[in-house]
Amino acid sequence: MSGYQVGLNSFGSKPADFPHQREGHLDHLTWYNSRPALQFFGFDDPVNCDALIGDEIRITVHDDHVCSSCGGDVDPDRDVCWDCADSPLMTPCIWNPGTECSWSDCPYPEYKRDACAHTFVVYLVAKDSVKVGITRADRRQARWAEQGATHAAIIGECHNRKVAGIVEMCLAEEYPSKADSSWYIPVDDPVETLVEAAAEAGECFPDRLAGCYTLDGLSTAEIRERVVSVPDRSTRVNDEIVAGTSELSRGDRQRGHVVGVRGSVIATESFTFNAKLHAGTRVTLETTGDLAVPEEDSNT
Amino acid sequence: MTDDIILLEEADVRNDLEEYQTYTVVVTVKNTYSNPDQGSGNRKLQYIDDTGTTRYLTLWANSTPEAVYDFDFEQDATYTLTEVQFTTNESSRRVFYNLNATEETEVSHGPPEDDSATNRQAITSASEDLPSTGVATKDAVAEEQAPTHTRESPSLDEHIDDALSEVPDPATTQTRHALTAFASTGRAGSLTVHEYELVAVNGYLPDDDEAALRDTYKARRQIARQHGDRPVVAVVEPLTLVALEKIDESAIDIDDFRLEGPQDALPRL
Ligand SMILES: [Zn+2]
Ligand SMILES: [Zn+2]
Questions:
Q1: Chain segment A151-173, per-residue pLDDT in tens
Q2: Are A211 and B174 in contact (CB under 8 A)?
């Protein structure tokens, strides 16, 4: 169904230079099925970002917002609602499991069972430099795309979130783990940079967790085969120019032609829109393109 | 607002503070965090309260003065923050206790000026949870002996011990194939949860769900204190607790309640 595609003319105000519009509280930019799509709270269908590329858009970032985590009502001076603020997801033990998680004394046994007591992978990604991260093994593809990495490689497999967090912490001395989500200029030769880092990373694993390193004894060529390229839509983008443009903030309205999408960022030739910064905020997206998500491939 | 000055380390905010009141609080910051995954962001000051519980005072980026939000809080240093608001809320049948800085909050290094010392004294001794007579209760004694108040940050080795504490042995031996022992996806099946019920005794009845939930949290603290090596106990709903290990009900003494254990452990898959 496409009831959200309201022609602006129906409001009788503006000329129809943007025939399609979506207005709602932004959730996040997903890369489900390797396709970038903007999700809004309360809408079943996300906005297909592929259809925006090459088209002109106008984005308005309004002042009001809902809970950035669940889309529920929230006091104007808060980012997240009460329900979400104290959920396990918002606690330091999830952000910094290596130092903050008290695994055997976990205050959230059920959450631990559902979300932490699984195989976690430690990975390196190439962005403007090499960064380290962890994620649940089955979430990795989406995670890398949402982070906006160009390439990624798994370097460790760990018993649970905390073990992975410890390895991440040890690697963070070499490779930063908290990445900025803005548009960036990719590192030169990301694949070789990643291969080199991945080959050396075993040194940083604590001795007792050395067995978690998955590249031990592999040749450079074998490691190179394990580097995956992460889906993005930035081949037509001049990174130097886009990284130098301004990011939309609250209260801003700008128009431009979409040149690419990477991670949480939609790039135009004159500004970028970083969805991650506006989770929960009411956003109006107007476009000359089509908003619909294409039918899913039958083979996926 | 009130003129009350709350020493967070000596307080149990759940019982000592009143909802929607603002307080001047004195906090010894154990750590600071910000959640990078949350829009315009927040900063949390971690402290440990009188019950040994790790808690947070939250500064929200869009409702805290910049000077306070950007303040350089140092670990283990003590600060005074004014106009901090206490609220509670309930969700999924749990009660959350929130301390948030407000637009009026100011921060200063150290405890407040001397002239407030008497005031401070009055507040702490008036708190409901502390014994009002000279007779030391079991709680108070246990409290003093509890080693959890001075917490040194654990070493890397201790963190690894903790992280591997529930991993089956074959998976952790140094074979360089750490993961051959378990599946890479799917739910973990090895966690057993023991469920306990609080049964009111001596004619006591909590007024309502909220009171029952408070009683349940209180019971959780009492269990933790009376049990040798602080077991993992979580509140499920009013009058229901779960533990990761078996608790000897007969050895636990809870005000107004009796702890009733499971006939058999419930394996949760
Ligand atoms: Zn929420
Ligand atoms: Zn944890």
A1: 999 999 999 999 999 999 999 88
A2: yes
State chain A's maximal CA–CA distance in angstroms: 69
Report how far residue B242's alpha carbon sits from residue B216's, in angstroms, rounded to the nearest whole number.
11
pLDDT at residue B136 is higher than 60: no
DSSP letter assigned to residue B9: G
Name the domain count of chain B.
2
Asked if residue B203 is part of any domain, the answer here is yes
Q: Is A54 left (phi over 0), alpha (psi -120 to 50) or beta?
A: left
Q: Which of A86, A95, A113 is opposite residue B33, by nearest beta carbon?
A: A95
Distance of CA A193 from the midpoint of ligand 1 (Å): 39
Q: Do B187 and A104 touch (CB under 8 A)?
A: no
Query: Residue B214 corresponds to which tokens in the numbers above?
Result: 């408070």
Q: Are A282 and A273 in contact (CB under 8 A)?
A: no
Residues A17-70 pLDDT 10s: 888 899 999 999 999 888 999 999 999 899 999 999 999 999 999 989 999 888
Q: How far is B60 from chain A (nearest CA, A)?
A: 7
Please answer yes or no on whether B98 and A279 come within 8 Å at the CB atom. no
Q: Using DSSP, state whether A178 is helix, strand or coil.
A: coil
pLDDT, residue B97, reads: 78
Same domain, B98 and B231: no
Same domain, B113 and B83: yes
CA distance A131 to chain B (A): 15
Same domain, B103 and B204: no
Q: Is the ipTM above a cut-off of 0.95?
A: no
| Residues contacting residue B44 through CB under 8 Å, at least 6 positions apart | A92, B32, B33, B34, B35, B56, B57, B58, B59
CB contact under 8 A, B176 and A211: yes
pTM: 0.60
Residue B185 resides in a domain? no
Same domain? B207 vs B157: no
Q: Where are the beta strands (DSSP E) in B102-249?
A: 107-109, 192-200, 233-237, 240-243
> Same domain, yes or no, for B202 and B71?
no
Given CB atoms, is B46 within the 8 Å cutoff of chain A? yes
Assess whether B65 and B119 both reside in one domain: yes
Alpha-carbon distance A88 to B49, whole Å? 19
Statement to judge: residues B259 and B135 lie in one domain: no
pLDDT interval class at B172 (50, 70, 90): very low
Using an 8 Å Cβ cutoff, are B250 and B258 in contact?
A: no
Domain with B45 in it? 5-171
> Which of B171, B205, B223 finishes a domain?
B171
Residues B99 and B48 placed together within one structural domain of the fold: yes
Beta bridge partners of B93: none
Q: In chain A, which stretches have pLDDT less than 50? A: 1-15, 295-300
pLDDT of the residue at B17: 84
What CATH number corresponds to the domain at position B56? 2.40.50.140
Q: Are A47 and A294 in contact (CB under 8 A)?
A: no
Q: Which of B138, B171, B204 is the last residue of a domain?
A: B171
Tell me whether residue B136 is in a domain.
Answer: yes
- Across the interface, whether the CB atoms of A101 and B163 are under 8 A apart is answered yes
